[in-house]
Each structure stands twice: as structure tokens, then as C-alpha cells.
Amino acid sequence: MTIIAWVILGLLAGAIAKAVYSGYQGGGILSTMILGIVGAFIGGSIFTLLRTGTLQLTAAGAGLSLTGILVAVLGAIIAIYLWGLIRRSSNV
To answer: From CA 83, how far away is CA 26, in angstroms rounded?
Structure first.
């Protein structure tokens, strides 16, 4: 997948995940893009684990398809949740 496709997938997945996830996440367009790209790796890795039974660091399996965007959004939602846990534990 080219860098342009990564940016588009990151923006789409990050924006959708931020819209779906309740509460305030903060950050601008760059953090949304990074969140989406990280989410694509998290979602793709979980998707590969469920499909093949092996844990591999992969991006959203189908790229810029509907399945790829869905997997990346689910991964981005997981990333938002984990980031919230990290931020909460560091504030204590």
C-alpha cells in the first residue's frame, strides 16, 4: 500500500473511530491520522490472528476496501481505549 493510501486510510479510520467512540479524545488532524494508522495495524493484526491463528504485525488486510476500513476503525477504537487507559494511569 502506498503512503498516500496509508494517509487516506488513517484519516478515514481515525475520524470514524473518534466519531463513534464517546467522550473527548482531543488532538487534531495529525493525531487522527496517526490513530487511524495505528488502528489499522492493531485491527489487521487481530484480524490475521483470528483468520490464521498466527500473530503477525500486519495492516488492515484488504487495504482501502470496505473490509480494510472496518478493520482499521475497530483497531482505532481499541487504540483510543488503550490511549485513554495510559493517560488516566499517568495522571494519578
So the answer is: 11
